[in-house]
Structures are given as structure tokens and as C-alpha cells.
Write a sequence for this structure.
């Protein structure tokens, strides 16, 4: 029997879903939709009576204070519960799509002693009578996503929701014989393998030596293992490069730049080396305090998020949390960060390539995904950024990061021959098939329909219980190694853990969400919330007991053998057999060609003029309102950034909720040592100067944590390379330039990279109205993440002005660096210089700032980034609720006389240039001499003071005085704050 | 004298159990985290404790409604044990998700005939919100809030809008002094009610004053530097946050 229970609010005022639907609908299909109502529906199938269903509804499904319900059997008519609303639109998860609410409901029903065969949740909107196609269009635009939902207008008629069919084992071999390169390429495309003809040729040759064709499951295993996602084949290729510094050859680009930098830093540190495990495990591990190490990882989940923003971002975060959980012998996640790069929020619909989700809806989807997953996990989402650029319209970037903490000496894993292969957590379904290979392929306007199977929905509570289980099992030392099931599913997880030992796996033992999965599907499914553990047989019983206590499913599915072979079985029959050495080392190496030429510099022209009073006032207000600069409060408030009780510096800081540079959490409750997190992104330089884009981003990340109190001698870095087409010489050349920048900066600042990730070929392809092929590429983008540490969280720095009458210092050097600046984006300038990093000076400045902070000489500190000096001053004022009076004449600057920058043009450049590594510090009068002494040797100057009331405007204001002594801006604090808070986002 | 013992209940999806246990320990109690499954199997465990706390989180995902399933478990397995616990002088505290759970049990604002008298509905904004709010403590019998006046604490929830069955219910609760904790005015004079609660209610106690449910998180303000306006200031260094007072009040009351 199939029942439907409909639940709705008695009071329309409680129906928030209806309100948001009405306003969204009115924007798409102008009409009065304000009468719409929503219903939460439950489909319940099983041998249950009407009375049983009443018990379920009243015991579990409704809130007796505010809600009411109706029950119908599928055979009954569907009557509207609302007068005047005749059209019903139902949105259901597609069969097989994760439905957390339904799973929870089933669990609750069991408490009442009732066990339905199947449960599915749905949502229904009731509308005034309208044509079905109109209602359906609204549902698709507002409520549903093609990748995961079905939409039904009118009466819902289903025979059964139980579904499921049986799969009988069969062995499929795939012949690669007799195929030309074109034929191999076609086979790779049709099977979504993302393998090149050269790679498939190597596979063919390997199987020739065995005297047979590869079986499908073997070919799939190789495709997962050799995917760009899993082994970074472009970045680890050989490259012949010609750049501005002449020709260079790399046998392995990543190894000889980023990895090499870390090796150099570690060698230079000698006995003081504080790295523990780098570029080896699922995240990078460094020393923290006497009994803990900390680890960090940042992942991208770009392609899935482009198609289904909510599910893509949620599972992106879920995946990186599992990376941390699966580091060493498990780490506890203590902080999350997220960074989104999307198209400008007000991009007109006509400028959107077909099949692309508009940036605002996309952003709100990814934010909701991170919110619902991160908040449920109970991990503070405490750091992040959002950048807006048209290049991200087709390929938005979604970065999710997690920091974890683990006991000392837990970073090494030691799986042993004879250990059991144990899979724990969620069950395996047909979700996320081909995620690893899909992420290595370009998106197109048809991606949504072609690749729906690769989109997954997260179930955060499964991951929370899995985390509780893993941490308890780790405490009891019940496993020798652990890794997460991410891209490539079991094939990658078991393959990596058994890379040298070899393993045998009984695929029929893997617990399934529903019947009917083939052996290959079980092996490569990317179903979420699963970890693989290597468990000594002597620990198995205890491990199973911990799993039962935490209500987590843990199943032994095989064992590590020690013979170097990967053997897959189905009910005892061998389904696949691979040599681990071939699988992990057999990929043919290629040498690529890179080329980069620095584009010619353009002369600096200042377009804005001083033909009216306060000529910098409007630019300041406009800068504060630019999407990159403006407050992201609408997003930040949706994240729980205080759970775990360890947060000290949060993303919004000061009485006025200004923007923090870095954020700080204690490593351990009750202890004062803190973790400082910061990110840097200079993507607006990516197309013109990839070296400076990367170097500037890294320095910005470091500046952010130093401005928050982190010790510059113990900063770990992460790289996330997101690139467009790297198959062209120029595209690859720009990547080489960025890798070189990573190497140079890391070595110079003794800040090692500890982990990283790349996402390449972020190019969106479509055909325009005239049938011409079009492409849109993202700008070369390096996201740099800095993981800093602070001895005592009582000594953090914040950008909020503290007291009137304090001195304001600028530390660092300003140059006419207008290329890629927010002022350039506003049209205030064109041309000028590309911001160049000076790593030697940067190191001196970071150490001077930290010395002053340790000595208690700095009352507030802010890093200068987007929008430059003037913007930073306004942000400090907003945060602290105090104004300032600031003279540009004193600002330490290097501006060539030949540029002829005088008067107002000079003021504008000083106020808005984006030269890297500069700070504004608030210093009490009494500490000024000591502060200046600490800054000896780095450019610094006393340029102004904080102030309370500006008598001329009757409130605090940000006042800027030009080089000729004239006031250039006097912006009341309330006006600055209103502009800064004007962005509607999230 | 022996330190009082606090039982911190946890269930799948509970995520504030560690810091809540830490807060009770800092206040002088011995705190133990106990899984609902273990407690349901052995309700007599409660006899070893003087304080019972349901901390924040998303028990069972809150996918159907916040706190729904954990409340069902308490009603099914622990109803009598918890009523006895309260009647013998034990203290019961529900924070955030714990408050949402308590309202669906017989322990707080419950009428034997009509059931729960109030609910925590979705915020008016329709969204999760994490922000600091100003709170006013009204005169009441509540032992947790004794001696407290105006204070600031963070909230973090999507369903915190206190809503009673009827205007009469609200008036009766007001008259009996159970609406003990209210959202007040911010420093800038604006209302700090983050969710649209009736009568600005942020927390309520039962008629004995020994059971409190509240949406704000006192366990997140044990140190003054956790306040967003105080981090990095010399005046905050080494000072306690106001949130600690709720836990020390509880520990003192049962010592």
C-alpha cells in the first residue's frame, strides 16, 4: 500500500516557503502568486493501515502547535487543502537520489514500531488554477534541479516507490585491439573514461602481455586512477617552457617547483623543521603544540557545483572534511573555509551563455549547500572569500577547506598485509558515477543532461556519526590506516591504500542503498559519507562495537594481501585483477610545451577628476559597494562560525561587524594556542601576469594571517590551481609561471606548501545563435591559503579602530599598481603597473609587524588589499565605529617622477593602488616611539589619527587629506557603512 | 564536598556536546557525554547525576523538524525517569536544539490535555542566523539565570521563533514568570530579536525554575575575548565571559 501524508502550516504567516516562492515566481512570471501555499509531503509504502499512518503523522511528521495534515492512499483523488488553490506542483527527488529527510523519517518510524518498505519526501506548491506548463516552468526555475529532481503537475500517481532490481554477474571485456588513435579517443569519450589515446595504448599493451582484453571493471579502475582529478597529470608532466626569463625544462613541473620549494624550506630549517607530512596524505600536516599536530586541505568542487550548486557545494565540503578525517590515523575537523568565484551578481540574462545558472542563484545555492552541511557537521565555517568576474560565468569555482587536529605521532599510517579492508558510513548507490573523470572534462551547455549521474547529494548527519565513530576508533587505536572514499569511490580509496600491498575485495559484500548495482558501479560509485579503514583482524570486534554504539554501519569487504595485486570478486568469482605496479606507475609520461610572454605595459591614465569638492568621496563610496569589496554578511551569518566554542576572531569583527583579515580558533578547548586562517586571491591579474597573480595571492594570504597576529615564521601554505585550457602552449605557460611564483615566494619567506589541488580545463563551450562555437575560460586563478599559528589567542589583532586620538601608520610601500585594481574596475584609471612582489621586503615587513604585535604596540591592524588604502581605512572605521583623519602626503611611496603624477591624480593612486604587503596600524600615542623603533628598516610613516566626532558632519567620518593639503574625502561613517553593506548576497 | 555531576546527552547530529561539557567542568562540575542509545537502555544512569543537559546541534539532522526525533526518544524511553529526576531536585537545561527538544516533551510548557503549549518555528527570515544578541533577564524562579541582568550571547539557529498556541497561552506564561529570557535592544538601540519570537522570548523555564530552555549559546561565551568587539583588546584578556555564569549558577544550586 502506498500512502501520502501532506503536512502544512495552519497559519499562512508561518509558511516561509510560500513567501519565498511567491516573490521568486513574480520575478519570473509577472502575476500575483501571493496566495500560493506549500505542503511537505511524505510517500510511505508498506503493509500499513490508515491508523498506522495516523500514528506516524501525529507522532513524527507534524508540529501540533503550528501544523496540520491530511492522509490519502495513492488511489484516492488529490484534493486541495486550500480554498481557491487548484493546481498542485510536486517536486520529488529522482529515484536513487539521496533523500536524507526520508531516511530520518524511516528511522523515526522504527521507534514507533512501524517499518515501511520505502519512504520518500516531496514538496508541493499549491497555486491558483494555472496551465500546467506555466506551473512546471516555475517549479524548474525555483524549486527543482534537473540533475536530481522530478516535477509532476496535478495529481500525483505512483504505483510504487520501492523499486530496485536484481543484477546478475556478467563479465564484460572491452577490446582495444585494432583501434586507431581516433577510435581510442571515441571509446574514451563514449565510456566517459577521460583517457588519452596514448594512455589507452599503454593499457592495450599491458593486457597484450596478459594475453587478453581488459574487463570493463579493470578499464574503469585504470581510468579513475589515472584521472586528472586523482593524479594531476598535467601538473606532474614534463614541460618545455619559454617564459620572460628564457627557456626552462621540467621533468615534473609540480615536483620541481612547489614540492621543491617545500624541500628547500625544510632543509633550511634543519632541526627546527615543523612540517610533519606534506604532499603525501589526504591533507598536509604540521606541528602545533607539544602534543598535537594540525592538518589542512582545500578542495575544489567546481563542475558538480556548476550543475547543481546546492548538492555540489555540500558534497565538496563533505569531501574535504573526510580528507582531514582520513589523514594519518584520523584528525578531528576544527574549522572550515569556503571561497567562491562566480560571475558578477547583476549579469543581464542576455549575457549568460546557454545552460548556465545565473550567478545570484548559483551563489545562493552554493552558500546554502555549505551552510546546511557545515552547520550540521558542527564545524565552524570561519574563513572565506567571494570574487566576482565574468570569466567565472560558465565555470564557477567552489573551494572548500578544512583544518583538523590530531595527537602527535598519528600522522603516519601503517596498513599491514592481513589487515581487513573495512568500509564504514553511508551505503553505496548509483550516485556520483564518473565524478573523477567528469571533473577532468570540459563543461558545455549540455552538461546538465549528460552528467546528472555525477552529481551527488550530501547527508551531513551520516558524516557526523561517521566522524564520531572514526575519532572514537582512532582514540582506541583500532585501525592502521584510513582514507576517504572521494572521487573514484572504492576504486581510488582501496587502490591507494593498497598501492604497494595489494588487496582482494568482495564487491558483493558492500552494503547497498538499493539492489541492482553492477560490480563496476559498486567499485566506482562516489556515494558520499564513506571511509575505508585498514583494520587488524584482532581489532575487528572492538571496531564493530564502536560502530554499533555510534549507529554507523561498518563492513569488512576484503583484506590487504601483500602480493601487490588488486583482485576484485563477486560472489567468489574473480571480476577483475590488476597489477598494482602497472596501475600506479604504468601511466605513460608526456612532455608538454609551455610559452608565456609578458604583455606590454600600458601607460597609466587617471580618468577621474577633482572638478568638485571631496573628489575622493564618491570613489570611496563606490569602491566600498563593489561586490569584491562589499560586506559578505548575508553569507557569513548563515554559517555557524562559533560551534565547538573555540572561535576567537570571527569573520565579522568589532562593534560594527567589520571584515576580519584572518580568523582564529583555539586548537584545543581551554588552551591558548590558536590556529589562524587566511586566504589570498589576485585573480584579476591572472590573464595579464600569472606570476604576479600567484605571488600576490600568496602574499595576501600571509598578510591576512600576520595582520591577525600569526607568527610569520610558522606559516604553512596551500595551493589550489584553477585554470582554463592548459592544452594550449600559452595556457600551460601561464600555469608554469604561477608554479614558479609559488616556488620563489615559499622559499623566500620560508613558508612551505604542505598540500594542494588543481582543477584544469575550466572552459565553457557552447554554440551561439548563429551556430558558431563559443568558449568562455576562467582567468588563471591560484587560491592561496595560509595556515598560521599564534602562541596566545589573547594577543590576536583585529582591524577595528579602538580609541580616538591614536596614531595611524602605514607600513609598506605604495607604487602606481593600478592594473587589476578595484579602481580600474570602477573605471577611475587605465593602465599603470602590475603589482610586483618584493619577497625580501615582504619578509621584513611581516616580521616587523609581528614583533610590534607581540610587544603589544598595535591596537588595530588591517592588511591593504582590494580597493587599496582608502578602502582599508573605511573598513577599520566601520569595524570600530570610529572615524579617522588621514594625510596621503606622508604615505611611503615609490612613484617615478616621469609619470607626472601630481595633485589629485597622485592622491587617487595613493588612495587606491593595490601594491602588495602593506598594512595600516593603529598605535597609541604612548607606544609611538617603540612602534617606530620596531619598524626601523621597513617603509613606514605616521599618516593620521583616529577620531570620534567630526564636528563638521556631526558624526564620525573618514577624512582623507590630499598631497597638497586639501581635503579630498570626508565620508560620514554611516554613509561608508551603508555602501559597504549594500551587496545583496547569499 | 563532591563535585556535582552533569550528564550531557548526545545523539546522532548533536554537535555542541564537547564545549557544553567543558563549560560545566569549568564551572566546577564533573561532566559526562552520554549517548541517547545508552541512556535509553539504562535510564537509571540518571540517578548518578544532578544536572541533565541537552546541548545544541542538529539531532538526527533535524530533517523533519528540529529536535523531533530526539524528543520522540525521550518521550518513549525516558519520560518517567526525567520527571522523577526533576522532581527530586535535578536541573534540566536545553540549549538551542536542546530547547527545541524540551518543548516537545512533558518537561517544559506542556499541558497534559493539549500537549506542547509552544513551539520554535522557522525564523522570520526563513534562514539560519549566527549573530550576537543582547538579552534581558526577567524576574523569575529560574536558577540558571539568578543574579543576571542584561547580557550578550551568540545565537545560531534556523528555527528559533518562539510561538505559543494562542495569545492566552502567552499571557499565562508571562503572568507565571516563565518567559525568563528576552531579546533586548542592541547598543545602537535596534531590536536584537533575531528570529521574530513572540514577546522577544529567547528562553523559558518551567514552573519550578529548575528546567530552562534557551536559544542562545552560553557555552560559546566562557572567555571575554570570544565577544566580537572584545577580541584583541587588553581589557578582555584573562576575563570570563558572561555565559559561564549560567553554568556556575547551576553548579552552585545543586552543590
Amino acid at each position: 500500500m502506498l500512502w501520502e501524508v501532506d503536512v502544512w502550516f495552519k497559519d499562512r504567516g508561518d509558511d516561509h516557503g510560500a513567501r519565498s516562492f511567491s516573490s521568486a515566481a513574480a520575478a519570473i512570471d509577472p502575476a500575483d502568486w501571493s496566495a500560493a501555499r506549500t505542503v511537505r509531503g511524505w510517500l510511505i509504502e508498506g503493509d500499513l493501515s490508515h491508523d498506522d499512518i495516523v500514528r506516524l503523522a501525529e507522532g513524527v511528521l507534524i508540529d501540533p502547535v503550528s501544523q496540520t495534515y491530511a492522509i490519502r492512499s495513492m488511489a484516492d483523488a488529490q484534493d486541495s487543502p486550500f480554498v481557491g488553490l487548484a493546481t498542485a506542483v510536486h517536486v520529488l527527488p529522482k529515484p536513487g537520489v539521496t533523500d536524507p529527510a526520508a531516511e530520518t523519517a524511516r528511522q523515526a518510524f522504527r521507534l514507533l514500531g512501524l517499518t515501511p518498505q520505502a519512504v520518500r519526501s516531496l514538496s508541493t506548491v499549491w497555486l491558483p488554477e494555472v496551465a500546467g506548463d506555466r506551473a512546471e516552468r516555475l517549479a524548474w526555475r525555483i524549486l527543482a534541479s534537473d540533475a536530481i529532481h522530478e516535477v509532476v503537475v496535478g495529481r500525483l500517481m505512483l504505483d510504487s516507490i520501492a523499486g530496485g532490481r536484481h543484477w546478475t554477474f556478467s563479465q564484460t571485456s572491452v577490446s582495444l585491439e585494432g583501434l586507431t588513435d581516433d577510435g581510442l579517443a571515441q571509446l574514451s569519450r563514449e565510456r566517459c573514461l577521460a583517457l588519452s589515446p596514448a594512455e589507452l595504448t599503454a593499457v592495450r599493451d599491458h593486457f597484450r602481455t596478459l594475453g587478453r582484453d581488459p574487463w570493463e571493471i579493470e578499464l574503469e579502475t585504470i581510468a579513475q586512477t589515472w584521472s586528472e582529478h586523482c593524479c594531476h597529470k598535467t601538473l606532474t608532466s614534463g614541460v618545455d617552457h619559454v617564459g620572460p626569463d628564457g627557456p626552462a625544462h621540467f621533468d615534473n613541473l609540480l615536483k620541481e617547483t612547489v614540492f621543491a620549494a617545500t624541500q628547500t624550506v625544510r632543509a633550511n630549517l634543519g632541526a627546527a623543521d615543523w612540517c610533519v607530512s606534506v604532499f603525501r596524505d589526504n591533507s598536509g600536516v604540521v606541528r602545533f603544540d607539544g602534543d598535537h599536530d594540525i592538518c589542512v586541505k582545500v578542495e575544489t568542487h567546481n563542475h558538480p557545483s556548476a550543475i547543481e550548486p546546492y548538492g555540489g557545494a555540500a558534497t565538496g565540503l563533505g569531501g574535504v572534511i573526510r580528507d582531514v578525517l582520513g589523514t594519518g590515523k584520523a584528525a578531528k575537523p576544527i574549522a572550515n573555509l569556503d571561497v567562491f568565484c562566480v560571475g558578477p551578481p547583476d549579469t543581464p540574462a542576455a549575457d549568460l551563455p546557454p545552460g548556465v545558472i545565473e550567478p545570484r542563484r548559483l551563489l545562493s545555492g552554493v552558500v546554502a549547500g555549505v551552510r546546511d552541511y557545515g552547520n550540521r557537521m558542527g564545524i565552524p565555517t570561519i574563513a572565506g572569500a567571494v570574487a566576482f568576474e565574468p570569466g567565472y560565468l560558465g565555470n564557477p569555482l567552489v573551494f572548500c577547506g578544512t583544518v583538523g587536529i590530531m595527537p602527535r605521532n598519528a600522522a603516519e599510517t601503517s596498513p599491514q598485509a592481513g589487515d581487513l579492508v573495512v568500509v564504514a558510513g553511508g551505503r553505496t548507490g548509483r550516485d556520483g558515477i564518473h565524478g573523477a573523470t567528469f571533473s577532468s572534462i570540459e563543461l558545455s551547455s549540455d552538461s546538465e543532461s549528460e552528467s546528472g549521474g555525477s552529481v551527488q547529494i550530501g547527508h551531513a548527519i551520516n558524516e557526523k556519526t561517521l566522524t564520531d565513530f572514526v575519532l572514537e576508533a582512532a582514540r582506541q587505536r583500532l585501525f592502521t590506516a584510513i582514507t576517504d572514499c572521494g572521487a573514484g569511490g572504492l576504486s581510488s580509496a582501496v587502490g591507494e591504500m593498497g598501492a604497494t600491498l595489494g588487496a582482494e575485495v568482495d564487491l558483493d559484500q558492500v552494503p547497498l542503498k538499493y539492489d541492482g548495482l553492477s560490480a563496476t558501479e559498486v567499485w566506482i560509485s562516489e556515494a558520499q559519507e564513506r571511509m575505508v579503514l585498514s583494520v587488524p583482524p584482532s581489532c575487528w570486534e572492538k571496531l564493530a562495537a564502536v560502530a554499533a554504539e555510534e549507529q554507523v554501519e561498518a563492513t569488512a569487504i576484503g583484506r590487504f594481501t601483500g602480493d601487490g595485486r588488486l583482485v576484485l570478486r563477486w560472489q567468489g568469482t574473480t571480476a577483475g585483477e590488476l597489477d598494482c605496479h602497472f596501475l600506479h606507475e604504468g601511466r605513460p609520461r608526456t612532455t608538454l610545451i609551455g610559452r608565456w610572454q609578458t604583455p606590454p605595459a600600458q601607460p597609466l591614465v587617471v580618468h577621474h577628476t577633482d572638478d568638485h569638492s571631496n573628489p575622493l568621496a564618491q570613489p570611496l563610496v563606490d569602491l566600498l559597494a563593489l561586490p569584491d569589496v562589499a560586506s559578505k554578511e548575508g553569507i557569513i551569518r548563515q554559517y555557524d562560525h562559533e560551534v565547538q566554542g573555540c572561535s576567537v576572531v570571527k569573520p565579522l569583527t568589532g562593534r560594527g561587524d567589520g571584515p576580519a583579515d584572518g580568523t582564529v580558533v583555539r586548537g584545543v578547548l581551554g588552551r591558548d594556542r590558536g590556529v589562524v586562517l587566511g586566504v589570498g586571491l589576485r585573480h584579476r591579474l591572472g590573464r595579464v601576469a600569472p606570476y604576479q597573480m600567484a605571488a600576490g595571492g600568496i602574499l595576501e594570504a600571509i598578510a591576512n594571517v600576520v595582520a591577525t597576529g600569526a607568527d610569520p615564521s610558522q606559516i604553512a601554505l596551500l595551493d589550489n590551481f584553477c585554470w582554463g585550457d592548459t592544452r594550449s602552449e600559452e595556457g600551460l605557460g601561464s600555469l608554469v609561471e604561477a608554479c614558479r611564483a609559488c616556488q620563489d615566494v615559499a622559499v623566500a619567506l620560508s613558508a612551505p606548501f604542505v598540500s594542494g589541488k588543481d582543477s584544469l580545463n575550466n572552459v565553457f563551450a557552447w554554440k551561439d545563435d548563429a551556430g558558431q562555437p563559443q568558449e568562455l575560460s576562467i582567468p588563471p586563478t591560484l587560491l592561496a591559503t595560509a595556515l598560521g599559528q599564534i602562541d596566545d589567542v589573547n594577543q590576536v589583532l583585529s582591524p577595528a579602530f579602538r580609541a580616538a586620538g591614536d596614531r595611524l601608520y602605514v607600513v609598506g610601500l605604495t607604487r602606481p599598481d593600478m592594473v587589476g585594481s578595484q579602481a580600474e574596475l570602477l573605471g577611475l584609471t587605465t593602465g599603470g603597473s602590475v603589482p610586483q612582489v618584493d619577497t625580501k621586503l615582504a619578509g621584513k615587513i611581516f616580521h616587523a609587524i609581528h614583533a610590534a604585535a607581540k610587544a603589544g604596540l598595535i591596537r588595530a591592524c588591517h592588511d591593504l588589499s582590494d580597493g587599496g588604502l582608502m578602502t582599508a581605512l573605511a573598513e577599520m572605521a566601520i569595524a570600530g565605529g570610529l572615524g579617522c583623519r588621514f594625510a596621503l602626503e606622508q604615505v611611503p611611496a615609490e612613484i617615478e617622477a616621469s609619470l607626472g603624477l601630481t595633485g589629485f591624480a597622485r592622491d587617487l593612486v595613493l588612495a587606491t593602488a593595490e601594491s602588495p604587503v602593506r598594512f595600516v596600524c593603529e598605535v597609541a600615542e604612548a607606544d609611538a616611539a617603540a612602534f617606530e623603533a620596531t619598524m626601523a628598516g621597513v617603509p613606514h610613516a605616521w599618516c593620521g589619527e583616529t577620531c570620534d566626532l567630526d564636528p563638521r558632519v556631526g558624526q564620525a567620518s573618514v577624512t582623507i587629506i590630499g598631497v597638497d593639503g586639501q581635503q579630498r574625502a570626508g565620508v560620514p561613517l554611516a554613509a561608508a557603512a551603508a555602501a559597504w553593506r549594500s551587496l545583496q548576497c547569499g | 564536598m563532591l563535585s556535582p555531576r552533569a550528564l550531557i546527552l548526545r545523539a546522532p547530529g548533536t554537535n555542541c556536546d564537547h564545549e557544553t561539557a567543558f563549560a560545566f567542568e569549568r564551572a566546577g562540575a564533573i561532566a559526562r557525554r552520554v549517548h541517547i542509545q545508552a541512556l535509553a537502555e539504562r535510564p537509571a544512569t540518571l540517578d548518578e547525576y544532578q544536572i541533565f543537559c541537552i546541548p545544541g546541534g542538529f539531532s538526527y539532522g533535524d530533517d523533519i523538524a528540529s529536535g523531533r526525533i530526539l524528543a520522540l526518544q525521550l518521550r518513549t524511553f525516558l519520560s518517567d525517569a526525567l520527571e522523577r529526576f526533576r522532581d527530586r531536585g535535578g536541573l534540566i537545561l536545553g540549549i538551542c536544539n536542546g530547547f527545541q527538544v524540551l518543548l516537545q516533551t512533558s518537561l517544559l510548557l506542556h499541558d497534559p490535555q493539549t500537549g506542547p503549549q509552544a513551539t520554535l518555528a522557522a525564523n522570520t527570515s526563513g534562514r539560519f542566523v549566527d549573530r550576537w544578541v543582547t538579552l534581558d533577564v526577567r524576574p523569575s524562579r529560574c536558577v540558571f539565570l539568578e543574579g543576571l541582568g542584561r547580557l550578550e550571547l551568540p545565537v545560531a539557529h534556523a528555527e528559533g521563533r518562539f510561538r505559543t498556541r494562542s495569545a492566552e497561552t502567552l499571557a499565562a506564561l508571562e503572568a507565571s514568570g516563565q518567559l525568563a529570557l528576552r531579546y533586548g535592544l542592541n547598543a545602537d538601540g535596534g531590536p536584537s530579536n533575531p528570529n521574530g519570537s513572540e514577546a522577544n522570548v529567547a528562553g523559558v523555564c518551567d514552573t519550578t525554575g529548575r528546567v530552562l530552555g534557551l536559544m542562545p549559546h552560553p557555552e560559546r561565551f566562557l572567555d571575554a575575548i570570544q565577544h566580537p568587539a572584545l577580541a584583541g583588546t587588553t581589557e578582555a584578556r584573562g576575563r570570563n565571559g558572561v555565559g559561564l555564569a549560567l553554568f556556575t549558577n547551576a553548579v552552585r544550586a545543586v552543590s
Notes: Chain A has a mean pLDDT of 92.
